[in-house]
Inverse folding.
């Protein structure tokens, strides 16, 4: 789920399955709605959304300790990325634009 506010991508949430996304959908939508309050209704162009996703993908991640049975990894720069990995796969990734 990529969230754009006022024409700019501000966050990205990735889950390992549609079922996991569905379990968090309501809270994610509520948070995005609250973040957008008072901001202009401007559609986020696809090119900006793709560029944001590419920045997330290109962010170097380093170990940040355990996360339950998995491991937390983090990285940052223009985008702050926090992810949980389990059995060599990412089960949840959250990215937030630094300028957001």
């Amino acid at each position: 789920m990529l969230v754009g506010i006022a024409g700019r991508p501000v966050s990205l949430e990735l889950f390992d399955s549609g079922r996991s996304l569905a379990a968090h959908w309501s809270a994610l939508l509520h948070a995005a709605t609250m973040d957008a309050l008072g901001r202009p209704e401007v559609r986020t162009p696809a090119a900006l959304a793709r560029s944001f996703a590419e920045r997330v993908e290109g962010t170097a991640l380093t170990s940040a300790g355990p996360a339950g049975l998995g491991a937390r990894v983090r990285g940052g720069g223009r985008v702050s990325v926090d992810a949980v990995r389990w059995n060599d796969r990412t089960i949840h990734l959250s990215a937030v634009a630094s300028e957001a």
The mean pLDDT is 96. The first helix runs from residue 18 to 36.
